[in-house]
Design brief:
about 260 residues; binds adenosine-5'-triphosphate; Heat Shock Protein 90; binds magnesium ion; alpha+beta; two-stranded antiparallel ribbon; 5-stranded mixed beta sheet
């Protein structure tokens, strides 16, 4: 009888030890997750800074090579000032995202946000035989963290551009209000994505771009992972449809019933 009681006691102790072990492991795993998250966010910050600085650098070089063009120099300085503010805002909001903080969102005019992106990209799409087809209602507003949504759209635009390099094509940006959502679509008539790869493209570090391909650069595979993280943080969705060798369409839906 006694031995059954003893056995029961030792089993109970065993159980309680294991429970505290599980709690400890859970805490360790949460910590590891937070660190992994921070690592990913740092890579993404570096990625977005690179998106901004690459274009700015090219533009500044153009001004250096044309020292008599004072108008160009003024433009470059304006862009530098605007993009420095932009870069610092991205840093702030991404670090806030890494710490799980809620970020400030407000209503922005979508057309203004998109116009600013093209000012930042600087390169004339026509030089790459790319037609722009932008169809955004004048007064359309979108409830978001402006800088982050701009970076998302910039990533989609840059991907679309790269998908059409050499052959050219059309890059379209459309938006409409749906029931309780704003829908924004970015499409290109580029190389498209094979069906079996569609599910991988939002994964961090998935890329098909290396120096041997047409883009002549190594992709980080972080652009779309960044887009997904930002859109998730806005309680929205981002999805893709593609016909290989024909076209790709990214669709973002952001909630609009937040008032
Ligand atoms: N518009 C598109 N057309 C064709 N393929 C695309 C398009 N957008 C994304 N992809 C595919 O998805 C992959 C991941 O895109 P993502 O933007 O995350 O990374 P990346 O462009 O390769 O590198 P980077 O981190 O520098 O943006 C790309 O390498 C490409 O294979
Ligand atoms: Mg990309």
């Amino acid at each position: 009888m006694e031995s059954i009681l003893q056995r029961r006691k030792s089993l109970q102790k065993d159980l309680s030890d294991r429970k505290s072990q599980i709690i400890k492991l859970r805490a360790q795993s949460a910590q590891a997750q937070a660190l992994a998250n921070l690592g990913l966010i740092s890579s993404m910050i570096a990625h977005e800074m690179n998106n901004i600085l690459t274009h700015l650098g090219t533009y500044a070089e153009l001004a250096i090579n044309n020292p008599d063009d004072t108008q160009l120099a003024r433009k470059v300085m304006k862009k530098t000032a605007a993009n420095s503010a932009r870069a610092s805002n991205i840093l702030k909001s991404m670090l806030a995202m890494a710490n799980g903080e809620k970020q400030e969102k407000k209503y922005y005019n979508l057309k203004d946000l998109i116009d600013e992106i093209f000012t930042c990209i600087a390169r004339d799409p026509g030089k790459d035989k790319i037609n722009l087809n932008i169809n955004i209602p004048e007064n359309m507003t979108v409830y978001c963290e402006g800088i982050c949504l701009q970076q998302v759209l910039m990533n989609l635009i840059l991907n679309g551009r790269e998908a059409m390099l050499k052959r050219g094509g059309t890059l379209s940006i459309r938006a409409q209000k749906l029931d309780r959502h704003v829908q924004i679509e970015v499409s290109d008539t580029g190389c498209g994505i094979e069906k079996e790869n569609l599910s991988k493209i939002f994964e961090p570090f998935y890329t098909t771009k290396d120096e041997k391909d047409i883009t002549k650069r190594n992709g980080a595979g972080l652009g779309l992972a960044f887009c997904k993280k930002v859109i998730d943080a806005h309680n929205g969705t981002i999805s893709v449809e593609s016909k290989p060798a024909r076209e790709t369409n990214f669709r973002i839906k952001l909630p609009d019933d937040v008032r």
